[in-house]
Amino acid sequence: LCVYVFNMTNSVSNMSDSVSNMSNSVSNMYDRRAHKKKILFFLSYKLGRNTD
What we know:
By secondary structure, the chain is mainly α. The chain is built from one helix and no strands.
């Protein structure tokens, strides 16, 4: 019984680890997208300033 409970808690902690990894990768994707938007905005701003 102890081994069974131990295995169950291990699998649950593994599941939570994989879920946190998934959420981390999703937040990283959003961060990258926001970073790209910032760079594009900055470049367009500089180009707009240059055309004036």
